């Protein structure tokens, strides 16, 4: 069997720019990054040369671009295997919520929390992301975190859970966790990309509880 030729990836606009020698490294810099500009090349020499040029001199010219992402563009390629994926489940009958996180490459469950009374799915997704970030921070790991909740991802970016759920005696524990999560975001820095799990492209979130 013929050996697959290596590819080199130029990132002109992303979390970090430069020439990368793997798709995973390229995607770490571009996945979920609004307006990312990047392209694959067949040799390192051509990639290094292209990096010195303006991206539009290459994107749409010659070899096919890997991707150009905008606000409405989906993620391209496969999800990064060296990542942590989270999801939450909310019981519509009882109102109970729980969340969990797995390591994507091995599907190993890293944490499972709940059930918590009178929660919401978005709160669960938010807590799951922050739990994952805190765990990775403790381990000094910068791998990405995937969630399929755009709402929860936006809450994490704003460092505040913008929930309309009212606090009651039954969900007081949950609101204490929200306060703790918001405080963690406001007092810690992290470089882990928090990315959208693209269900329409990749299928169901691997951390899904399978109760749909």
Automatic annotation (TrEMBL):
Location(s) in or outside the cell: Cytoplasm
Pfam families: Cauli_VI, RNase_H
Transmembrane segments: none
SUPFAM superfamilies: L9 N-domain-like, Ribonuclease H-like
EC number, UniProt record: 3.1.26.4
Domain named RNase H type-1: residues: 78-212
Substrates-to-products reaction catalysed: Endonucleolytic cleavage to 5'-phosphomonoester
InterPro entries: Ribosomal_bL9/RNase_H1_N, RNase_H1_N, RNase_H1_N_sf, RNase_H_bac, RNaseH-like_sf, RNaseH_domain, RNaseH_sf
Keywords: Cytoplasm, Endonuclease, Hydrolase, Magnesium, Metal-binding, Nuclease
Domain of life: Bacteria
Role played: Endonuclease that specifically degrades the RNA of RNA-DNA hybrids.
Family the entry assigns: Belongs to the RNase H family.
UniProt protein name: Ribonuclease H
Lineage: Bacteria, Pseudomonadati, Bacteroidota, Cytophagia, Cytophagales
């Amino acid at each position: 069997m013929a050996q697959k030729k290596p590819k080199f990836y130029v990132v002109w606009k992303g979390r970090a720019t430069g020439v990368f020698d793997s798709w995973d490294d390229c995607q770490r810099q571009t996945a979920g990054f609004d307006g990312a500009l990047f392209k694959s090349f067949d040799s390192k020499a051509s990639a290094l040369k292209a990096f010195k040029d303006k991206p539009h001199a290459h994107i749409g010219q010659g070899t096919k671009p890997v991707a150009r992402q905008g606000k409405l563009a989906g993620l391209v390629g496969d999800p990064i295997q060296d990542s942590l994926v989270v999801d939450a489940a909310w019981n519509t009958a009882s109102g109970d919520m729980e969340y969990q996180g797995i390591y994507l490459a091995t599907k190993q469950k890293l944490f499972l929390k709940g059930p918590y009374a009178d929660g919401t799915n978005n709160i669960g997704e938010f807590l799951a992301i922050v739990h994952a970030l805190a765990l990775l921070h403790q381990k000094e790991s910068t791998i990405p975190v995937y969630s399929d909740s755009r709402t929860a991802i936006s809450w994490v970016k704003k460092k505040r859970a913008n929930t309309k759920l009212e606090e009651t005696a039954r969900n007081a524990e949950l609101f204490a966790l929200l306060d703790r999560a918001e405080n963690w975001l406001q007092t810690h820095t992290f470089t882990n990309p928090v990315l959208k799990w693209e269900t329409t492209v990749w299928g169901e979130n691997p951390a899904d509880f399978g109760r749909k």
